[in-house]
Amino acid sequence: MTKRRAPVMTVSADLRSATAAALARCLPAIIEPWLQRVARRPDSRTYQEARATLRGLLDWAVDRVAGAGPALPPPDRLAAFVQIRGRQGVDLPTMFDDVRALRDAAWTALTPGFRAGALDAVTAGAWLNAAFDDLLAAVILVVYAQETLSLREAAATDSLTGLTNHRAFFGRLEEELRRAARIGYPVSLLLLDLDNFKQYNDEHGHPAGDQVLRQVAEVLMTQRRVTDTCARYGGEEFAMIFPGTPAADVEAIAQNMAHRLRLGTGLGFSAGIATFPGHASSPRDLVEAADAALYRAKEEGRDRVLIA
Question: Within 88-233, where are the H helices?
């Protein structure tokens, strides 16, 4: 006797489309309760930003339920969601609760369709859960990526000035010289040291000295292009990396910075400039060439900029 096989259940595209359409119609009812928790004033900027963000994420969920759209939520909307909640001091578990609350609201909104038999609760529920599970996983990835980036930035940043620190500076210099050697352009290094800073510290105290160091950092950052690197090299010594810039141009920039610093603090600095590949062929040799020019500037009376 031949054993009869159970019929294979097939899910039609029409059912997916119907479920997605029903979910799309319910989006306002899903979004508004969450917005009330996140930003109570409808006229606030946060409220409007959160609405646009959530709409983008839920439009993606509708597409996923319909069996279309990309596997991951829109990166800009995802990042905005994490940023909005992060600004409000919300931790990752609470963001989980946000996503779960949105999923539960979606279930509630679709319940009339399940009861009326227009939608299949088992299959539609599976699609709905899968979409929100993907959203939850994406939120986790974004939060951990941002935390990792923050830790890396903290490890590479001088705590007093906010500039790149000494260790990270050397890594950046190596990267820039490798790129310059491959493409074929100069990289100039500026090392500067505040003149008479110890005397200033002794007369005005360390808090005032720290404020001067922060002012130096601000002056450097005003002269910085997107491709340049500003670093606190150590103590009252600072460094700047200028990709694609000849020494003469860096000298003019340094003179402008010295003028700004004198106006703001009354202090000047001595500086040395060296350029790859003209003055050196390696990061260490470039630093030594710039440092030698800095030493000469000190020896010749300070408050000047010299090229190696």
Answer: 92-116, 121-155, 166-183, 197-204, 206-222
